[in-house]
Design brief:
The structure is a single chain. By secondary structure, the chain is an alpha+beta fold. It has 10 helices and 4 strands. Helices cover 51% and strands 16% of the residues. A 4-stranded mixed sheet has the order 1-2-3-4. Helix 4 packs antiparallel against helix 5 and helix 9 (270-283) packs antiparallel against helix 10. InterPro entries: DUF4835.
């Protein structure tokens, strides 16, 4: 009997040791690339999956059920030998307390993704050295995942991970590949982390905490109290928008939440509906017709 217990504990320890931070689906596709061996993309996909999910990214011990869920979809559009060019779609989701519902934290398409890759060559990465654009970009988004997830559970809970993402951006200033520099565009990796670490726009991060931890997580027990916290989060988002209309990180927040917000407020009181719609139309005017459905919904 003792042997059985020891073996069971050993299996449990081994399982927990493998329970790293992420449970992320990685997919590499190449629909536009012709005349090349497709197996290299399968190898890249498996190596990136292992890089993401089997590497230790923090000092925190995650339980299996705590692992952060998301997807990384890489679409290769061009290949020339060891040089690859395409785009990367990163999506992050978070479970809502006492429900089977997962809310989206991020869904972003990065169109500036170039890298070198040699099949079966180990993927190298260090937090203190810009090794390759492939691993640095993936690591950047993983730290972004950790930061956004952390912010949704505790006020400014993602700060240590945003600092790591910022460090990757700093080291990428001499990279030949695009996406790391301020002058290359107003919506890239540089500006995404700049928005998240700039104190001027801290209200967006506070809004995320109120929206998720004090809002969605509370709604299973008290719908009205949860919605009240989401009301407060909208006020914080309006504050950020008035500081800088069209703020990149605010646009990404709304991109992830538009449909969810319509559902949340469609069953609200007339006063809450009107207030929410007025704010949403102000901060996201391009989607005004979608928010109008809130007022048209019967409670």
């Amino acid at each position: 009997m003792k042997h059985i217990i020891v073996i069971s504990l050993f299996i449990l320890v081994c399982f927990c040791a493998k329970a790293q931070e992420f449970n992320v689906t990685v997919q590499v596709t190449s629909p536009q690339v012709e005349g090349t061996e497709k197996k290299i993309f399968e190898t890249l996909q498996q190596e990136l999956f292992d890089f993401v999910n089997n590497r230790k990214w923090t000092n925190y011990i995650y339980k299996p059920e705590e692992r952060i869920e998301g997807t990384i979809l890489i679409t290769i559009e061009q290949r020339s030998g060891e040089d690859f060019k395409g785009k990367i779609n990163v999506a992050l989701r978070r479970p809502v307390f006492k429900s089977s519902y997962n809310t989206t934290l991020l869904n972003y398409l990065d169109r500036d993704f170039e890298f070198k890759y040699v099949e079966f060559q180990p993927l190298e990465y260090s937090d203190n050295v810009f090794t390759t654009n492939l691993t640095s970009t993936i690591a950047y988004y993983l730290y972004l995942y950790l930061g956004l997830d952390g912010d949704s559970f505790a006020k400014n809970g993602g700060s240590p991970y945003f600092a790591k993402a910022q460090n990757i951006v700093n080291m990428g200033q001499n990279a030949r590949e695009k996406g790391w520099k301020a002058f290359e565009g107003q919506k890239n990796r540089y500006w995404l982390i700049e928005n998240l670490t700039n104190p001027t726009y801290s209200s967006v991060r506070e809004a995320s905490y109120r929206y998720h931890r004090l809002g969605l997580d509370l709604m299973a027990d008290d719908v009205e109290a949860g919605r009240a916290a989401i009301n407060e989060s909208l006020e914080l988002l309006r504050k950020a928008n008035r500081e800088r209309p069209g703020l990149f990180i605010l646009q990404l927040f709304l991109e992830a939440k538009r449909d969810e917000l319509v559902n949340i407020y469609s069953q609200a009181s007339p006063m809450d509906k009107t207030k929410a719609v007025n704010i949403l139309k102000e901060i996201d005017p391009a989607s005004a017709s979608k928010y109008q459905r809130i007022l048209e919904a019967a409670k």
